[in-house]
Amino acid sequence: TFAYPSPFSPSRHNEIDNDGHVRFQYNTAKDTRVTVRVYDFAMELVAELEMVPRPANGSFSEIWNGRNQRGDVVANGVYFYSVELESDGIYWGKVMVLD
What we know:
The chain is mainly beta. It has no helices and 7 strands.
C-alpha cells in the first residue's frame, strides 16, 4: 500500500468539490471488504473510511479529504493509516499532511 500525494495539502492537492484528497492505493488477491483508518502520531483514530467490497486481483484506491470525524481539517504532521483487507490482513503506511 502507498499514499499519494505525500506530502499532502488538503487545500491544494486533487480538489473535488472544494476539498483536496489523498489516495490510499492497494491491491487485492481475493474478494474482500476494505476498511481504511487514519491515525495521528499518538495512534489515536482520526478518520475511518467506510468498509467497501472489492473484487479479487485488482488495484484500488480509497480517498481521504484530510478531515477528522468531526469534519475539521487535520493539523500538519505525520499520519499513519491502515488498509484492512477482511480476507487478507492489515497493511500500514504513513502520509504527511502539510498545508
